[in-house]
Amino acid sequence: MITRFLRLYANRFVSRWLVLLIDLAMVMFAFQIAVVLRYNFELAQVDLQMMFSQSFMALGFYTISFLLFRSFSGVVRHTSVEDAFKLVKAAGLATSVLVIINLVSYKYFPQGSHVLLVPIAVLLIHFVFSTFLLISSRFIFKAIYQTLFDKGRVKLNILIYGAGSSGMLVKNTFSQDKNMQYNVIGFIDDNPTKQAKVIQGARVYGPAVLSNDFIEKKEVDEVILAIHNISNARKREIIDLCLLHNIKVKSVPAIEKWINGELTSHQIKAVKIEDLLQRDEIQLDKDNVRNEVFEKVVMVTGAAGSIGSEIARQLLHYRPAQLILVDQGETAMYELEQELRKVHASLLSSVRLVIADIRNERRMRHIFKKFRPNYVFHAAAYKHVPLMEENAYEAAMVNIFGTQNIADLSMEFGVHKFVMVSTDKAVNPTNVMGATKRIAEIYTQSLNNAMSNTTRFVTTRFGNVLGSNGSVIPLFKKQIEAGGPITVTHPDITRYFMTIPEACQLVLEAGVMGNGGEIFIFDMGESVRILDVAKKMVKLSGLQLGKDIQISFTGLRPGEKLYEELLATTENTQPTHHEKIMIAKVRSYDYDQVSQQLVNMKQVLNLGDENRIVAKIKELVPEFVSNNSRFEELDKVRFNPNTEEGTKESHS
Question: How many CB atoms lie within 10 A of CB 596?
Answer without folding.
Answer: 11
